[in-house]
Design brief:
heterodimer, A: Rossmann fold, 4-stranded parallel sheet, 8 strands, B: 4-stranded parallel sheet, disordered N terminus
Amino acid sequence: MNRAESSTTAERDRRSPRYVRLKSTAQLHKLMTRYYAYARYMPRLGKKIAWITSGGPVEPLYAAGIIPVYPENHGAICGASRMGPKLAEQAEAMGYSRDVCSYARCDIACAINGGGPIGGLPRPDLLVCCNNICGTVTKWYEVLARHFKVPMVLIDTPYLHDGELTDHALRYVRAQFDDLIVAIENVTRRSFSERRLQKRARLSIECIEAWKRVLGYCEHRPSPISCFDAFAHMFPIVTLRGTKWAIRYYRQLEAEIARRVEDGFGAVPEERYRLLWDNIPIWYDIRGLFKQLAARGACLVADTYTNAWTMDRLDQERTLDSMADVYTSIFLNIGIRRRFEQTAKLARRFNVDGVLIHSNRSCKPYSFGQLDIQRWIRQELGIPALLIEADMTDSRSYSREQVKARLDAFLETLEASA
Amino acid sequence: MSSSPDPDRNFALESLRSATASPDEHARAWKQRTGSGVVGTFCSYVPEEVIIAAGALPFRILQVPGEFGRADASLQAYACCLARGALELGLADGLEFLDGVIFSNTCDTMQCLADIWSADLGGDGGGFVETFMMPVHVSHSAAREYVMGEIQRLIDALGGHLGVAIATEALSEAVNACRDARGAMAKLHEIQRGPSPVLTARQYYDATMARWVLTPTDYTPLIDAVVADSQTLERVGPRIVIAGGPMYAPALPELLDDLGACWVADDLCTACRPSSGKLEASQDPVAAIADRLLSRPPCPAKHLTDYDPGKAVVDVAREASADGVLVYRLKFCEPHSFDYPRVKEALDAAGLPSLLVEVETPSSSVGQLRTRLQAFLEMLADPAVSGARA
């Protein structure tokens, strides 16, 4: 290749940069396939299945040998496979409003009609719903409980407007954890083992620490991975937290990312701007957004979504007590001012130049309050913040052209102020 | 409609209408007359007894203005009109008579609105903004102790803000007054859902909505007067039940009257649902409030083990010998939207015709609503439909 050709290729790469997948992705896909195959076939050998919300306490399930399955993760897969609109329409035909969460619509459609990108989820023996992420899940799981006719355990975690967890609220949450244990014993017909729970808590802490390290690599300039990688690789921290599978996977991933740092490899060629993402990804347009951002040297280096699984304070000695506290205090269960403070902390740590805020029609608790947060970001952090309207799964509520135009204008502003 | 006019009954009905027609004016006048405070609430789960015991008037914020220009800067358009409307009024200084507001964790939207309200309208030198954290898991054995803790927290916070020590005696009095108001309302509802209804749809609306702006001591005698002189309606058209969320829409009951239908019962969060629940007297007023909140028919955003929202609506409709059910829903209301398919399925199975009325704002599309209601009522009058039900 002569110099002219090389220069043309470089120019083309700069205009339309290629997303370089982490090599570990192949291993991740194997892990996901193995997990879903395990969940699908092990019930034949007597294993029990629990469907659980993404912010729910999974450790007691693993401790009891129950396989946890995540309808929200399933919703994300529906979105990423671009089956969202088709499945959502099936739920709408059943009478569910288009204003209902699109994860829920997709999952309910698959639960009732079957189908979907992975052929639906294995039938549950138990439903574990923790409303620390939204009130939507309570209603969603009520629908599932009526459909499958299986017990539903609700762990109601009072929202912490000012961030303070009162003693009476803590006792209330803790008492509901006792119910979870009783429900687990009823399903497994075995006594629950505190010792096994402690072991799972230890693995969970280890997994959380590994995930923190993975995300922490984005402090480097250039950032070796972007949030698009974090979105793709968050599956184990959500689904396999409390297992050795997840820890082993993240060790491998960490090693690969560390090599990228040593090689000076940037997720985005010629990283010029570092951005922070707020809210759930727009699953069906991850590639499009990456390309548009990367073409101008913008890299998403931090996000509030994947950082939600970096919780602290899980105490393996007082496991259930500390779980009641930890699971009540997660990012989506605290007031918007506290959420801004945590976002600001991420923005400073990862040295971001701007913030992209996804106003997500399907996630009201994550989205309402964003306009105040946007103002605080501009005023108190002195960096620009752009709000884009979309839906995490249902592409019918997404105007790619409009988002593209707004994003272009935002990036031009960044360039002008650089 | 009603045959011979009676001063007491007419006075009562006019007073209820006047309070409902312009609740904010009523609250302003009350404040001026008594010199006491007015505290806004956003949900029927906020224990009004605490506000009354503090000497203030509880005022439920339900008005929805025609535009949301100011609110749009802080809350996205896919929030329900109740949240957007309240914020708009607050930002436009339309609620200047309030001495504070108390939210409950009604739903995701209201939960976030409480934070937005604190940020935009509270803060240093701003108003009092508190959230009463009602448990979602109302059937759980630990919920009682928790909700009692929340009531006590509210007593301390509101008392501190208004500069009054809320004594147990005052709270007991408030509990009794609210119990009497609910008891009076229950009697009226019992008559209305019986074979000889006494209220037009608009009167039914006034009688239930006035509850959110009158003190119980002002409200109870008015309802008692209507009950004492309950004159049956001369003509009773199709018997209609309305089920759903908050309904601040006089247009709908007026349409029912115009079209000759009779509103006999409801399962609404602005009418019957919050007025039910354990009414027994208790030595401990905090426990009495907690027990009522936990025993009342739940809002869809609350969870009771094995609760069937479809059966609940069918039971209300059957008890009222309803001919049809209107399911009233605010657009973007997720809890009610999740329940709708089950409610519809149960109504269909019970042979009860129903119509979903979804509104962007209470005043929107009245013309279209009239056409739909007309068609629905004609369908109910069809001998094939009524015969199948019989």
